[in-house]
Amino acid sequence: MVSVKKLTIEEKANRLLEEAIIYYGDRPVGALAALDSTTEALNYDQCFIRDFVPVALVFLIQGKTDIIYNFLVETVTLQKQERRIDCYQPPPGLMPASFKVGSKGDKQYLDADFGDQAIGRVTPIDSCLWWIILLRAYTKATGNLSLAHQPEFQSALRFILDICLGPQFEMTPTLLVPDGACMIDRRMGVDGYPIEIQSLFYAALRSARELLIPNIESQDLINKINNRLGSFIYHIRAYYWLDLLKLNEIHRYKGDQFGESVVNKFNIYPDSIPYWLTEWMPDRGGYLAGNLGPGRMDFRFFAIGNLMAIISSLATESQSKEILTLIEERWDSLVSRMPMKVCFPAVDGLAWQIITGSDPKNTPWSYHNGGSWPVLLWMLMAAAQKMGREDLGDRAVAIAQSRLAEDQWPEYYDGKNGRLIGKSARMYQTWTIAGFLLAKLLRDNPNYLSLVCMDEDTEAAACNI
Ligand code: GLC
User: Ligand 1 pocket test: which of 35, 42, 48, 190 has the largest number of ligand atoms within 8 Å of its C-beta?
Assistant: First the structure.
């Protein structure tokens, strides 16, 4: 009798990842967003830059570096570098949200979407930030700076930095963005200065500084980066931080203060503290607020912003530990039956109508409105490992492992507890598969944490003394 060996969950996941690879000619250049053939493809048959990041990290750890090399080389050519003729064209520096391989006759070409085709015409600002973070990871994994040092790559970096560090209508060090400019690519009230973008911005600036060739040409840019990083880190650590102590402070804030050295700089009115938070904030732990602007503090917890703040050392060491403590203390809200919620809590009722524009996909506790996204598992694991809280990462992986393969690797889960498979979730979602594998790989090979993790920045601090 022939014995058929049962595949382990990792083996299954690895096979699926291989199946998702997109070829351009005979070269692997990316991965499909989902392998789901049962639902209308929309743009899930494309390679999204943000979705490709965990896939790329898995491959880098496994030593399959070719595909990342090809991906980086091809995406550089997609970046817009010329001045736009009209404002419907992408601005120079922007990287596409996604691309696919098209063909005319027997000739293939890459067709990129800069948000000009995307639902809602959202601008994918996170793409160029993830791209720099990935270029650094590639450089670290291969020990080879020569790709990043090629003139095309140096100029791609400069284009991105120009658009991020150029003049804007604002007077804070944070990056001002429109709604839906990141993984949450629909109206969700993440316009202005969302932590989801700020953490990536910080990690990208630090990565770019490592990748730029230090010469006369780039010195000005490096100075600009250091300048920005210094005030940026202060701004986030001081003004976005929320814990019980800070909440008490805001609770007793005086409004309408004028002048340079006032306490309530952003004129946050105590009445804007949502009732849920006064009950939910644990005695121990804290987190970075979702957004901060004039008269506006978004008190929701956003996962990517907080986890990436730990990974990139945007949060201080003690804040990083406290964020993980909060996740532990509020495990049932934030992780529950599937790691983990993209944001908490969901908005509902009139707030849902106003904030999402009555979006039927973003109903309370679904999709981007409090849905649970297994891809976030790798960031949770990386953040937990970095801070010596492997126990939290392990707990989360065990939950995911008990369901993901059986549920066919859904894109997201619904419900307050994340018990239901997302209403419109794709199956065999590539970054769900990669997120799981990556969490496992990082746990088994902690030395690879350095591909994404950063220590406390000493350079910018030194420049700002
Ligand atoms: C959805 C998600 C987005 C993701 C894309 C492809 O649009 O909102 O974050 O990149 O699907 O998976």
Answer: 48
